[in-house]
């Protein structure tokens, strides 16, 4: 005999003890306490997970902001920096399967806490080379370092140079060669980023599932949305931190800053890149502390105790669709096997290949997967080298570049993702509409990107590289053109990079190659006189002066940079709008029992085929546009000092645009398949049909509420990809 809730309260109020099933009947007071305990515990976990998302997004974006700093500090090419950047994805892939499978059986909060410790250890390891590889040495002529010794930049005769100064200089070089020849300290940066990827692995799968398991069902989407929103803030602070550290000299606290002869505008300048990693590592440690005190399980809400399926799954499984219901029961059975409730483990393994065949037999899924892989190749490469592009193309400093990206571009991406979800919710867009919105977003985004080809700056006027010593532009063998009649009497090296700016507005690779005979002052205030190559076109025989540093780019460059920022922000927003509709398209055309598997394959493919290779081949392509390579102290090619602005623009934007165009063709194919499979009367598509393809059904039976899907899904890794 069942007892109503009112009768139950009446019996308890009269202190009458009845033999009741504890799992079926509870007093209002105990239920209220349990609800408060559940809500309190899940909210604490939500706050801790949000902080962890912030920490991992901050450290990931900070790495992007230090790409050029690492390249100069370790004297390595862009292609090698791309390998370092891709090592994070490699570390993530090493253990993602183990964490996803075994993590759910163990203490999930503590595994996340351990991941935070590993992530912080990797972040600290990235910064460690700064404390072991000695002080940073940049190329400078001795007279600009020591004002007490007057040395002629144009060494017409070695006797002009004090023997002690030359001897001291060569002694320092020879002493450093033995140590440098046997060390490749950039490997520690690679290993640290690899370790950071390993530590970050359990955060997303275990954290999101923990919220989904113990949160009230209608609140789960809101909680996940809060986590993703906080994650967007991480890159903003990451790039702003990169901007701050880029202004500080790399050896701050270890050397006298007054003795530094270069400024943050110099091509050889290296900021305090390591300082941000120490800060990010400390934040990761703090973020992991709360998880060690959270329970393995939280009390489940009453609304979820008696239901074996979620409301989302129930929407896909209808009473008439027996085949669909049967497949879901099979999914539940396999899930129980994985939890150790059944000894029949091998049958679940036998279901893997049929599921994989079913998934890859879905043309919509395969085409969308191909489109996403190619598009993420485009976006990852573009974002990784965007700071370098801005610095080299528009002559901006690393500090200003990071500040602009963090304060303008990242918020535009966040607003675009939010707008895409809002459009889907407000207009209740179906699968076909989502495909159109995703395609339109990509098309107009890359169309805007095409306009950036016209918003570049001309090459800096560098004598012997981009212009002749007479001021005319030409293209010949750059190395042979470094010497001219005006510096033929000087003993100069073509490997040096110590640029000076002549009063004629032309940059010279070194004071020696400019034919300068004398200098005064020291450090940043050094002025060179009697420079035979720094003559104006009107009076080429007139000797002129020069100052330390590169000359500013053309007068139109600041205006072009402003145009670039405006178009870049609009492009970032436009491309981001299509992220959520595309993700919804992916979910709605997959059978319910294959959704998790499909998302796993999707994430794996993006990481392996886009996250790892894109930074590498983008870096290789960018290296081909280098005009002047630096030289290591012991010989060998170092980091690039000067790029061909026009070639860099065509390679960087061209590669991004070509990949984006190919992805658009795949998106058009997705739309064509969806149109072919939809009826004119009803374009609403559902997750049923043979081989997992999207088929049509009546709106009454199989319409999927777009509100629910918008709230419960998110675009993975959006905080670091754009």
UniProtKB/TrEMBL annotation:
Major facilitator superfamily (MFS) profile domain ranges (all copies): 45-678
Superkingdom field: Eukaryota
An MF annotation (GO) of this entry: bile acid transmembrane transporter activity
Keywords tagged on the record: Cell membrane, Disulfide bond, Glycoprotein, Ion transport, Lipid transport, Membrane, Transmembrane, Transmembrane helix, Transport
Entry's Gene Ontology cellular component terms: basolateral plasma membrane
UniProt name for this protein: Solute carrier organic anion transporter family member
PROSITE patterns in UniProt: KAZAL_2, MFS
Region described as Disordered: spans on this chain: 301-324
Pfam family, one: OATP
One record GO biological process: sodium-independent organic anion transport
Gene (UniProt): Slco1c1_1
Domain Kazal-like intervals: 480-535
InterPro entries in UniProt: Kazal_dom (IPR002350), Kazal_dom_sf (IPR036058), MFS_dom (IPR020846), MFS_trans_sf (IPR036259), OATP (IPR004156)
Membrane topology: Multi-pass membrane protein
Family: Belongs to the organo anion transporter (TC 2.A.60) family.
Membrane spanning residue stretches: 40-59, 80-104, 110-132, 220-250, 270-294, 365-383, 403-423, 435-455, 560-587, 599-622, 651-674
Species this chain originates from: Uria aalge (Common mure)
């Amino acid at each position: 005999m069942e007892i109503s809730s009112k009768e139950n309260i009446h019996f308890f109020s009269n202190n009458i003890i009845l033999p009741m099933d504890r799992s079926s009947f509870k007093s209002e007071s105990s239920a209220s306490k349990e609800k408060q305990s559940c809500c309190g515990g899940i909210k604490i976990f939500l706050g801790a997970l949000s902080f962890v998302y912030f920490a991992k997004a901050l450290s990931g974006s900070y790495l992007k902001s230090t790409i050029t700093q690492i390249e100069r500090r370790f004297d390595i090419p862009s292609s090698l920096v791309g390998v370092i950047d891709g090592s994070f994805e490699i570390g993530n892939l090493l253990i993602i399967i183990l964490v996803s499978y075994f993590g759910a059986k163990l203490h999930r909060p503590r595994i996340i806490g351990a991941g935070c410790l590993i992530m912080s250890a990797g972040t600290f390891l990235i910064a460690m080379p700064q404390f072991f590889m000695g002080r940073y040495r940049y190329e400078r002529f001795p007279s600009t370092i020591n004002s007490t010794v007057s040395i002629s930049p144009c060494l017409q005769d070695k006797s002009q140079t004090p023997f002690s100064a030359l001897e001291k200089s060569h002694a320092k070089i020879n002493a450093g060669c033995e140590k440098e020849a046997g060390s490749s300290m950039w490997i520690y940066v690679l290993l640290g980023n690899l370790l950071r990827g390993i530590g970050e692995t359990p955060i997303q799968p275990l954290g999101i599932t923990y919220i989904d398991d113990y949160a009230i069902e209608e609140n789960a989407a809101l909680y996940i949305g809060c986590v993703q929103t906080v994650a967007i803030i991480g890159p903003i602070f990451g790039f702003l931190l990169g901007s701050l550290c880029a202004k500080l000299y790399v050896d701050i606290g270890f050397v006298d800053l007054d003795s530094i002869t270069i400024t943050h505008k110099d091509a050889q300048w290296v900021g305090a890149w390591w300082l941000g990693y120490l800060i990010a590592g400390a934040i990761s440690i703090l973020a992991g502390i709360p998880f060690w005190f959270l329970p393995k399980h939280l009390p489940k809400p009453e609304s979820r105790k008696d239901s074996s399926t979620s409301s989302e799954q129930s929407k896909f499984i209808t009473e008439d669709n027996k085949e669909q219901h049967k497949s879901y029961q099979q999914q539940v059975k396999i899930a129980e096997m994985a939890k150790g409730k059944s000894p029949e483990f091998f049958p679940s393994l036998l279901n893997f290949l049929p599921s994989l065949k079913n998934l890859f037999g879905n043309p919509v899924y395969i085409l969308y997967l191909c489109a996403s892989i190619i598009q993420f190749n485009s976006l990852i490469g573009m974002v990784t080298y965007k700071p370098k592009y801005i610095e080299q193309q528009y002559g901006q400093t690393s500090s200003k570049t990071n500040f602009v990206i963090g304060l303008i571009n990242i918020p535009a991406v966040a607003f675009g993702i939010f707008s895409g979800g809002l459009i889907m919710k407000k207009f209740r867009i179906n699968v076909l509409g989502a495909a159109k919105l995703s395609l339109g977003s990509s098309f107009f985004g890359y169309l805007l990107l095409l306009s950036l080809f016209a918003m570049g700056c001309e090459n800096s006027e560098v004598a012997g590289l981009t212009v002749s010593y007479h001021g005319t532009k030409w293209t010949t063998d750059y190395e042979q053109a470094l010497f001219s009649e005006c510096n033929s009497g000087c003993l100069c090296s073509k490997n040096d990079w110590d640029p000076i700016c002549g009063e004629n507005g032309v940059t010279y690779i070194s004071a020696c190659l400019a034919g300068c005979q004398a200098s005064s002052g020291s450090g940043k205030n050094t002025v060179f006189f009697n420079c035979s190559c720094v003559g104006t076109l009107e009076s080429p025989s007139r000797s002129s002066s020069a100052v330390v540093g590169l000359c500013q780019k053309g007068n139109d460059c600041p205006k072009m940079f402003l145009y670039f920022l405006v178009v870049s922000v609009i492009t970032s927003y436009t491309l981001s709008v299509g992220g959520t509709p595309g993700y919804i398209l992916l979910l709605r055309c997959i059978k319910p029992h294959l959704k998790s598997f499909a998302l796993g394959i999707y994430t794996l493919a993006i990481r392996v085929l886009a996250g790892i290779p894109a930074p590498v081949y983008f870096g290789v392509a960018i290296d081909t546009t280098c005009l002047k390579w630096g030289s290591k102290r012991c010989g060998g090619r170092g980091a690039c000092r000067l790029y061909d602005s026009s070639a860099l623009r065509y390679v960087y934007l061209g590669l991004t645009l070509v990949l984006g165009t190919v992805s658009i063709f795949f998106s058009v194919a997705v739309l064509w398949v969806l149109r072919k499979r939809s009826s004119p009367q009803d374009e609403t598509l559902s997750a049923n049909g043979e081989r997992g393809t999207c088929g049509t059904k009546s709106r009454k039976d199989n319409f999927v509420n777009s509100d629910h899907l918008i709230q419960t899904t998110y675009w993975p890794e959006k905080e670091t990809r754009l």
